[in-house]
Amino acid sequence: MRVIVAAVGLCAGLLIGGAPAVAADAKGGEAKPPAKDLVLRGDAKCTSCHDEADAPEQLAIGKTKHGTRADQRTPSCTNCHGDSVKHEKEAGRGSGKGPAPDVAFGKKSKNTAEERNQQCLNCHQGGKRIHWQSGVHANRDVTCASCHKIHDGHDKVRGKDTQTEVCFTCHKEQRNQATRPSHHPVIEGKMTCSSCHDVHSDNPKMMVRGSTNDTCYTCHMEKRGPFVHSHQPVTEDCGICHNPHGTTAANLLKSRPPFLCQSCHDGSGHHGQSAALPANRAAIGTSTLGTVARGCLNCHTNIHGSNSTQDATAGTRFTR
Ligand code: HEC
Ligand code: HEC
Ligand code: HEC
Ligand code: HEC
Ligand code: HEC
Ligand code: HEC
Ligand code: HEC
Ligand code: HEC
Ligand code: HEC
Ligand code: HEC
Prior knowledge:
Radius of gyration: 30 Å
Shape: elongated
Number of domains: 3
Strand content: under 5%
Bound molecules: heme C
Order of helices and strands: HHHHHHHHHHHHHHH
Helix content: 25-40%
Number of strands: 0
């Protein structure tokens, strides 16, 4: 890193293609030509120190969308890190590190999560992030930079194969569930967490659509119906029976039938007897015995809803 003896900077945002900073090598005392922007518009006031020798990874930002200099909306260093005038003049001089930049995003940052996020929201409040501030992540002090890597060009959270790595650093329970025998093909890289979640939103459970069901229907349309006979818990919330992250029971079911079914349909009547042999089976008819030890789904095949009109009674029982 070169040490700057005198650096006179203007507002970086106004500069295109070079700052009039006069840099001189401290040891040689040799006059240097005015520092040039390296990767972002108006970055010279920063890259005079944070140059290739010092910070090759930081400069990789030039290869990201933020580095498209032809796009007038893209930021300079100062749009994210603040004007940082004191830092620019004094950092790295003397014994200490000198004043920090106005806004830093690393672990040592003294800025609140809100202050950091505001830098990004100055440009990105629109679109999906309109309701960012009332979402769960914002309220738990998760920052944009907790997920997005800005400098190095590898924004893992937006890659199909790499997104889960980022989410799992905080969401351990979902990591466990994702490897259970029945799971959506997320760890296989065919789907991502963001197939179902919009992590910038304030929707319930941050679903991409307003509700769990509307989100599931985007891929499982056939479960939407409308059905002539619908099963109440299905229309209410798919999550009543399924855990979409992963389960030990097949079909992402929270528990196996008949236990799943019997959590709502009590043990009296024919359905209660199918889990075990009834004690007085000699005294009861074969029609009842027909259900003994058989899965409810052997007969109730259309558990998400049925369209049978042939026989109204059977139809309502999801048996066809
Ligand atoms: C005079 C040289 C110099 C200039 C000019 C300079 N910096 Fe720095 N910067 C430093 C030094 C030295 C450090 C401390 C490095 C360390 O902590 O290892 C630093 C650290 C940083 C950090 C990391 C802070 C942290 O807490 O992790 C950021 C961000 C930063 N500078 C941004 C900028 C920006 C933006 C500009 C332009 C407005 C700029 N710097 C201009 C010398 C400079
Ligand atoms: C779009 C916003 C944005 C812009 C523009 C930006 N930075 Fe950063 N900077 C960040 C974030 C966020 C981090 C935290 C690490 C990360 O996400 O990569 C960071 C980290 C840093 C660090 C500390 C690196 C570390 O890990 O300790 C330095 C130094 C730095 N930036 C300098 C600069 C310089 C110099 C420029 C201009 C060439 C610049 N930044 C432009 C957002 C930005
Ligand atoms: C000065 C305005 C500005 C600031 C500040 C800014 N961005 Fe951006 N950002 C842009 C522009 C412009 C694009 C390119 C948009 C496009 O191509 O549609 C962009 C693109 C992005 C993208 C998509 C990149 C891609 O490859 O498609 C992400 C993610 C992003 N910004 C995150 C951030 C984060 C996080 C911060 C704060 C640390 C931030 N931005 C600060 C203007 C800004
Ligand atoms: C919990 C992780 C996470 C956090 C926190 C987060 N993002 Fe994102 N962001 C993502 C993911 C995943 C995508 C890609 C999928 C999508 O668009 O939902 C994305 C996409 C983006 C994009 C590009 C697509 C678009 O919507 O234009 C921008 C810009 C962006 N984020 C900005 C931000 C800003 C600004 C913040 C902070 C206010 C932020 N993000 C916070 C995970 C996150
Ligand atoms: C197939 C859709 C789907 C996918 C893919 C998905 N989720 Fe979810 N997630 C949901 C639903 C639905 C809920 C709400 C469950 C409920 O109401 O009990 C939820 C809830 C959550 C919750 C809140 C849990 C709670 O107890 O409140 C977290 C955290 C979460 N998901 C993280 C993730 C992560 C991380 C990934 C990627 C590894 C992911 N999800 C992938 C559908 C999905
Ligand atoms: C820096 C940590 C962190 C990262 C990274 C992170 N989250 Fe979160 N997330 C949280 C915290 C904290 C909560 C609050 C609830 C809790 O404690 O689980 C939360 C809550 C959620 C919820 C529940 C929302 C609700 O309404 O209850 C979902 C869904 C979620 N995160 C999805 C994701 C996904 C998907 C990713 C990756 C793209 C991700 N998160 C990355 C920290 C994080
Ligand atoms: C982005 C598309 C998508 C969304 C959204 C989605 N799924 Fe899936 N679902 C899939 C894919 C892909 C499979 C795997 C199909 C296969 O393996 O043949 C699947 C399989 C399933 C299975 C069968 C699992 C097994 O072990 O056979 C169930 C149950 C399921 N999804 C329920 C849900 C629920 C509930 C939701 C809403 C919370 C949901 N899905 C949202 C794409 C999606
Ligand atoms: C009352 C409990 C229950 C509810 C609520 C429920 N399901 Fe299911 N689901 C099941 C059962 C039981 C199976 C296994 C069916 C079988 O083996 O024939 C299943 C299987 C599935 C399958 C994989 C097999 C197939 O039929 O494609 C998908 C996908 C599915 N459900 C999606 C959904 C969606 C989407 C919702 C919400 C609209 C939902 N489920 C609500 C009980 C339920
Ligand atoms: C969360 C509670 C819940 C779960 C779990 C559940 N059901 Fe239901 N089921 C209901 C409700 C509520 C009704 C509507 C009852 C009514 O209309 O009297 C219903 C209706 C039915 C009916 C039609 C009853 C009629 O009179 O037409 C059948 C058959 C049925 N369920 C079978 C099952 C099976 C099989 C399972 C397991 C795969 C199951 N249910 C799981 C709550 C549940
Ligand atoms: C051998 C086929 C068969 C099996 C196995 C079966 N059912 Fe049924 N179920 C039927 C038929 C047929 C009807 C409609 C005629 C009737 O009411 O007896 C019915 C009716 C119902 C009803 C509505 C009437 C009532 O009694 O409330 C519910 C609820 C029900 N079954 C739940 C279940 C559950 C839960 C299981 C598993 C524990 C199960 N069934 C296993 C065939 C079966």
